Amino acid sequence: MAKQRMPKKKCCVDKPRCGRCPLRALAEGTLPPGYTVKKRRLVKLAKA
């Protein structure tokens, strides 16, 4: 089994979406813990 790579920092808006797209990872639920996507960019969640 291959090791999962980190999503890109910014979505390149290609159609179809590339394999490391943060939007695709968000939709599939494969984003690393502590990260989200805002305005097509991968951002770290603030600690509450």
Q: Mind explaining what this structure looks like?
A:
The protein has 48 residues and is α+β, with helices and mostly antiparallel strands. The chain has one domain (1-48). The protein is 15% helix and 17% strand. The chain is built from 1 helix and 2 strands, in the order H-E-E. It has one helix at 22-28; strands at 35-38, 41-44. It has a two-stranded antiparallel sheet with strand order 1-2. Strand 1 (35-38) and strand 2 (41-44) form a beta hairpin. It is globular. The N and C termini lie far apart (34 Å).
Fold topology:
Blueprint: H1 22-28, E1 35-38, E2 41-44
Antiparallel strand pairs: 1-2
The stretches of 5 or more residues where confidence is low (pLDDT under 50) are none
Span between N and C termini? 34 Å
Query: What order do the helices and strands follow?
Result: HEE
Please outline the major beta sheet: 2 strands, antiparallel
Helical percentage: 10-25%
**In which order are the strands of the major sheet placed?**
1-2
Structural class, from helix and strand content?
alpha+beta
Large-scale geometry: globular
Strand content: 15-25%
Q: How many DSSP-defined strands?
A: 2
Number of domains: 1
What is the mean pLDDT?
87
Rg (C-alpha, Å): 11 Å
Q: In DSSP terms, counting alpha (H) and pi (I) runs of 4 or more, how many helices?
A: 1
